[in-house]
Amino acid sequence: MKLETETLLVIGTDTGVGKTVFTGLFARYLMDAGVGVRAVKPFCSGGKADIEFLQAARGGLGQVDLNFWYSDEPISPAAWERRHSQAVDFKGAINWINSLRSAVFSHQEGLGGQLPVGSGQAGVLLVEGVGGLLAPLAKGKTVASLGKAIGAQLIVVAPNRVGVINQVLLTVEAAAKRGLEVAFVVLMGQREPDSSSLDNAALIGDYLPGLAGFKGVFEFPWLGESADDPKQIAANVKKVEKVLAKIFEACMLRGPSGSGVTDQPSG
How far apart (Å, rounded) are the C-alpha atoms in residues 141 and 12? Predict the structure, then answer.
């Protein structure tokens, strides 16, 4: 069977909207479903909590396996570049990502040797961005530039609250103008949802322009204050298993046999 491959760039409508939680839970779900997967965060700053969450989601990987550039300062890579008069190696990050993709999809290293590799196994590389689509990464480069350089489809993560429709539509429009394809939108449930949350997903679907390859708008329930706790990843995957199964099916990812996945893990 021909190998099915996906490179997906997870972006937000803003910072702190749930990108890492979604990326980690989706990665664990795919891994449990038998799909070869690696989730990476090439650029990270202001603390290693996101890196540690992705490490826990995938298991057995060090920081160098999923992070290319890091700074303790809670600022964007481009701001760090300006403050320190030192260039962020954007091209090096692209080469690093491409090397990971080549290894994952060619089965040369089998994701660190921890996953079985075999004919027809799917390979998925989840790349988490920083902030929104136009967040600056280096001189003249943004998260959108990253998406273009690695040829990724976009996953737009946004908080399910008032104002999100405008934020998502602006993000999708900006992506389309840059030749980027949006795979789907994920709305993250809020601790105290406002009345708009009942209609946001449907309205986003109604107002989105026709998009090639668009797979839908999906809603995550509120996962509690422990959503970003690495120890709760397995439990939280169970809580959102049904929506992850829908996303998995919509993406038409393939299982180890190479056949379309129709049976999802039960709750």
Answer: 17
* Closest residue by Cα to residue 188 from 9, 40, 49, 16: 16
* Angle, alpha carbons 233-158-142 (nearest 5°): 100
Does the pLDDT at position 266 exceed 90?
Answer: no
Give CA separation, 227 vs 16, 150, 232, 235, in Å: 12, 29, 7, 10
Give the confidence band of 61 by pLDDT, cuts at 50, 70, 90: confident
Q: What percent of the chain has pLDDT over 70?
A: 84
Q: Give me the helices (H) in 33-121, please.
A: 49-58, 63-66, 77-84, 90-106
What is the C-alpha to C-alpha distance for residues 133 and 178, in angstroms, rounded to an integer? Answer: 11
Q: Report yes or no: 184 and 46 within 8 Å, Cβ to Cβ.
A: no
Of 9, 5, 26, 21, nearest in space to 156 by CA: 9
Q: What is the pLDDT of residue 8?
A: 95
Is 210 exposed, middle or buried (CB count within 10 Å of its CB: 0-12, 13-18, 19+)? exposed
Q: Helix 90-106 and helix 143-150: axis angle, to 10°? A: 40
Is the pLDDT score of 2 beyond 50? no
Taking CA atoms, 169 is separated from 128, 203, 257, 261, in Å, by 20, 10, 37, 31
- Chain centroid to Cα 3, Å, comes to 21
Q: What is the DSSP letter of 69?
A: E
